[in-house]
């Protein structure tokens, strides 16, 4: 956990060819007012680099560029589905060809272990592009039957059309993957995009813009604006934006909805979670312990789907919790560049303070907390924590911590487990560990969550719709639903006339 080493210097060379400007209309430029944004390296708390900080006029430039690039008659608008598909495949291929560099960028910028970024985030981002490349040629309308009219008189068609200019606003926890998850389906649908990465992790979005340029994406189809919350707010509120697709906190999601109500622009929201994980007494306990630890501690617990509430059937509660505590204590924490590191730092000093405040308040209320220590290091590290005996109404049980903090509680009956799991304003993900698959499916159907994992966690795929119920958001990403979210359906009706079948008209 020391300051800049030889390995660091080699790794930092991944920044050498990275543009730090705004990517608008296929060109790199400074912000109009030349402001800069600092990106820190969470493992050392040092400045990693600075990038352009987009302001209101830059937002206007990028939205205009995206509008022009998607206009009828534009190169993008006229591009065949086959060519669009090839473009998406090409970007996916380029992500894989540049996997080491992209993984390094996310490792340095976010703090996550390099091996996690290399084996997880980067191939997942490529897979989204490759999967979405299959859609352009399959976005067909219908030849619709008119219900109330004469079948011979009317020819009616439905046509899927791109929704238009998309503002894509993403958080810092999976920087490259989140960018891919927004951009690829929007492009598959024929939309144009202004992408705003999180202020903490702007770098891999800039690299993605470079790759899109290399793939030959027409100028203005993808624009990248680095900036902060104010940049995001200006983008989400711009009247030239037809749709906002947002991943981030529930509070910001709410403000985006309020803004979108002005002109009813389309909105997809992937928000927070407090996902319950139910372990039944008959489960394979080794698998359940590993699964529960993975559910909460993966990516430093900074995942929206983190399995942060654990409900364990009483007769195995002590054994499961002891197993998870043992796992937590063994997790190797350190700089993501170190190949032994299993858990990196949290994203920022402020975020760590917030995470620790949940533990302090739980302890003060009499809960038992293990872990949650701050190692002696300049980085924003925090050891994984397990909380038991907490008041069910305590903030650590009710609110999203977004860090490596698990709250465990025993239950006695299936009904009680389901009721506890559903007692949350969120509804993003849930899990069930049991050997009884019938029980797992029946409980799974009762859980109010967009995704339910059985004897597993964190299995996501571009073919599978992902999203939340209730406070976890609106709409779905991925799968066909994820492409449909970027389409409007137009109905075209042609009145063929009320023909009476008399003699065939004579030629004139
Ligand atoms: P955040 O909402 O503060 O920021 C997310 C993004 O929104 C950033 O790019 C930020 O600059 C921008 N932003 C901030 N204020 C804005 C505003 N008023 N208008 C428009 N844009 C604005 O979230 P965060 O703290 O960076 O990320 C953590 C949150 O994201 C957690 O709550 C987590 O659950 C959620 N998250 C959800 C998912 C999901 O798929 N459901 C995935 C990852 C993270």
State the major sheet.
7 strands, mixed
Distance between the amino and carboxyl termini: 91 Å
The DSSP helix count reads 17
**Which small compounds were modeled alongside the protein?**
nicotinamide-adenine-dinucleotide
**Which runs of at least 5 residues are low in confidence (pLDDT < 50)?**
none
Our Rg estimate from Cα atoms comes to 25 Å
Helix proportion of residues, in percent? 25-40%
The overall strand count is 20
Mean pLDDT: 95
What overall form do the CA principal axes indicate? globular
Q: Give the amount of beta strand, in percent.
A: 15-25%
Q: What class, by secondary structure content?
A: alpha/beta
Strand order of the main beta sheet, please? 14-15-16-13-12-17-18
Structure description:
The strands form five sheets. The chain has a seven-stranded mixed sheet with strand order 14-15-16-13-12-17-18, sandwiched between helices. The protein has 17 helices and 20 strands. The longest helix has 19 residues, at 114-132. With 508 residues, the protein is an alpha/beta fold. α4 packs across α8 (203-215) and α11 (285-297) crosses α12 (314-330). The structure holds nicotinamide-adenine-dinucleotide. Nicotinamide-adenine-dinucleotide binds at residues 169-173, 196, 198-199, 228-229, 232-233, 236, 247-249, 252, 255-256, 270-273, 304, 400, 402, 428, 468, 473.
């Amino acid at each position: 956990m020391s300051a800049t080493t030889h390995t660091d210097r080699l790794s930092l060379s991944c920044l050498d060819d990275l543009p730090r400007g705004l990517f608008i209309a296929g060109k790199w430029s400074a912000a109009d007012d030349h402001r800069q944004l600092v990106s820190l390296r969470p493992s050392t708390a040092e400045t990693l680099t600075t990038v352009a900080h987009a302001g209101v006029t830059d937002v206007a430039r990028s939205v205009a560029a995206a509008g022009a690039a998607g206009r009828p008659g534009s190169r993008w608008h006229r591009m065949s589905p086959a060519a669009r598909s090839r473009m998406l495949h090409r970007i996916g291929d380029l992500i894989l060809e540049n996997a080491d560099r992209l993984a390094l960028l996310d490792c340095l910028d976010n703090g996550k272990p390099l091996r996690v970024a290399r084996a997880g985030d980067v191939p997942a981002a490529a897979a989204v592009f490759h999967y979405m490349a299959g859609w352009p040629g399959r976005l067909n309308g219908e030849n619709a039957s008119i219900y109330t009219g004469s079948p011979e008189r009317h020819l009616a068609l439905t046509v899927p059309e791109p929704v238009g200019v998309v503002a894509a606003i993403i958080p810092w926890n999976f920087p490259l993957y989140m960018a891919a998850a927004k951009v690829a389906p929007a492009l598959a649908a024929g939309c144009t995009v202004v992408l705003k990465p999180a202020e903490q992790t702007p770098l891999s979005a800039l690299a993605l813009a470079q790759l899109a340029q290399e793939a030959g994406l027409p100028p203005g189809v993808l624009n990248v604006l680095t900036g902060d919350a104010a940049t995001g707010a200006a983008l989400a509120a711009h009247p030239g934006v037809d749709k906002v697709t947002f991943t981030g906190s529930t509070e910001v999601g709410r403000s985006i909805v309020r803004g979108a109500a002005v002109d009813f622009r389309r909105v997809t929201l992937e928000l927070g979670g407090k996902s319950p994980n139910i372990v039944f007494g008959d489960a394979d306990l080794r698998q359940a312990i590993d699964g529960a630890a993975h559910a909460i501690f993966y990516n430093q617990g900074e995942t929206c789907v983190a399995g942060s509430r654990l409900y364990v059937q009483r007769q195995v509660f002590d054994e499961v919790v002891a197993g998870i505590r043992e796992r937590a204590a063994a997790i190797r924490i350190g700089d993501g560049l170190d190949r032994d590191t299993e858990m990196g730092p949290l994203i920022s000093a402020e975020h760590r303070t917030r995470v620790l405040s949940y533990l302090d308040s739980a302890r003060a209320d009499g809960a038992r907390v293990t872990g949650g220590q701050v190692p002696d290091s300049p980085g924003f590290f925090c050891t994984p924590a397990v909380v038991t005996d907490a008041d069910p109404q305590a903030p650590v049980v009710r609110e999203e911590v977004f860090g490596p903090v698990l709250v465990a509680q025993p239950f006695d009956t299936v009904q009680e487990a389901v009721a506890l799991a559903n007692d949350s304003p969120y509804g993003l993900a849930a899990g069930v560990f049991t050997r009884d698959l019938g029980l797992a499916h029946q409980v799974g159907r009762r859980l109010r969550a967009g995704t339910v994992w059985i004897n597993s966690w964190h299995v996501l795929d571009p073919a599978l719709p992902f999203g939340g119920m209730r406070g976890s958001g609106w709409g779905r990403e991925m799968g066909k639903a994820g492409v449909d979210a970027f389409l409007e359906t137009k109905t075209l009706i042609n009145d063929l006339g009320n023909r009476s079948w008399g003699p065939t008209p004579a030629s004139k």
